[in-house]
Amino acid sequence: MSKALDGVRILDFTHVQSGPTCTQLLAWFGADVIKVERAGAGDITREQLRDIPDVDSLYFTMLNHNKRSVTIDTKNPEGKLVLEALIQKCDVLVENFAPGALDRMGFTWERIQELNPRMIVASVKGFGPGPYEDCKVYENVAQCAGGAASTTGFDDGPPVVSGAQIGDSGTGLHLALGIVTALYQRTQTGRGQKVLAAMQDGVLNLCRVKLRDQQRLERTGTMKEYPQYPNGTFGEAVPRAGNASGGGQPGWILKCKGWETDPNAYIYFITQAPVWAKICNVIGKEEWATDPNYATPAARLPHLKDIFAEIERWTMTKTKFEAMQILNKYDIPCGPILSMKEIAEEPSLRKTGTIVEVDHPTRGKYLTVGNPIKLSDSPTEVKRSPLLGEHTDEVMTELGYSPEQISALRTAGAI
Ligand SMILES: CC(C)(COP(=O)(O)OP(=O)(O)OC[C@H]1O[C@@H](n2cnc3c(N)ncnc32)[C@H](O)[C@@H]1OP(=O)(O)O)[C@@H](O)C(=O)NCCC(=O)NCCS
């Protein structure tokens, strides 16, 4: 079966997490992703957080499926020529080096355009143009600079970063969208273009609702769905809202049976307005459905703390899965707090290919997250990550190099 990005060749100059997430997605959609790594060393994550000695780490394997690996020393003059040949052959160059690294290597936008005017050059950087544009950035720096940390956590505690890698993987997603959009535009213009996804911008995009709230706060001085209302105080900036829902449907995380010993025996419970009467019935507070202090969303806002305390009295008598089953019967929106162990063992996620078991020649079997985006005409088959330089000879041959030339380049340390 054909794949959506069949025929698209990606020169993958990415490392660590943000860039590799992007190119992995493109590979899953069918692009031929050729990962260029430093000869002898490779992507630094191959050896980071290793759980098996001398074997590519899960960090690396889980971000580099379906790619080919070639090793080129791009600072070696002959290595540069190999890279030039690749630039001429590929449609997209994706990189997430520190600012200026690609230029220092001699591959400026102008030079790349000379070599291949159709080339799309896609970059992840920590910041866009401005005071921080030269800074190196990792995940949590982006979460802090993009507004996620200041708005996450509890009001009486410090800023908190999320386990979701919105700075790295989130920006990789943004970049992937920019690349396919640029590929589409190229079908009209015939020209390549630069695509930039700055991590601060990507995180801020995901924190859009908090900038909405900043303006609401400035205009009205309060936000009634925040836990600070009605007794706490609001300052000048959007405060941390604990586990409150972002929108107009108040929600909170509530204890379930077993919470004393199981750190994940909790459920997220949303008091959605259309099902308020059903909620009242389920928790045995039928009178709240008509009591003017509780009957309307506006009347409930000053009492949210008491309302959730009452609902929790009910959820504590059920496991999170029992509560889920009962509440779903009444269309009451809720979600169990699933541990990574529970997610890894969930049969439905295996069935859809969202969790996949992959075999690797030196590591053996491991679990990974498959393609979260499902296309009906372009199914994803998750293939193991490449060993360092596994495809150097294969790709060099495709570029037209003879076995003798390949051997000479290897002796010269260029590949
Ligand atoms: C992630 C980051 C902080 C890592 O920094 P780092 O480990 O110092 O790596 P750099 O990107 O600076 O690259 C290091 C050097 O390797 C060189 N290099 C990379 N591949 C090479 C190759 N195949 N052959 C020869 N040299 C190579 C680069 O040219 C660069 O050299 P220079 O500093 O002399 O110009 C940095 O790359 C960065 O800020 N990237 C953008 C933001 C980002 O993606 N962050 C998220 C990471 S998950």
TrEMBL record:
Top-tier EC class: transferase
GO molecular function: formyl-CoA transferase activity
Pathway: Metabolic intermediate degradation; oxalate degradation; CO(2) and formate from oxalate: step 1/2
Entry keyword Transferase: yes
Catalytic activity: formyl-CoA + oxalate = oxalyl-CoA + formate
Keywords: Transferase
EC annotation from Swiss-Prot or TrEMBL: 2.8.3.16
Positions annotated to bind substrate: 247-249
Catalytic residue list: 168
InterPro entries attached to this UniProt entry: CoA-transferase_III_domain, CoA-Trfase_fam_III, CoA-Trfase_III_dom3_sf, CoA-Trfase_III_dom_1_sf, Formyl_CoA_transfer
Top-rank taxon: Bacteria
Job of this protein: Involved in the catabolism of oxalate and in the adapatation to low pH via the induction of the oxalate-dependent acid tolerance response (ATR). Catalyzes the transfer of the CoA moiety from formyl-CoA to oxalate.
Subunit comment: Homodimer.
Recorded family membership: Belongs to the CoA-transferase III family. Frc subfamily.
Protein name: Formyl-CoA:oxalate CoA-transferase
Lineage summary: Bacteria, Pseudomonadati, Pseudomonadota, Betaproteobacteria, Burkholderiales
Gene of this entry: frc_3
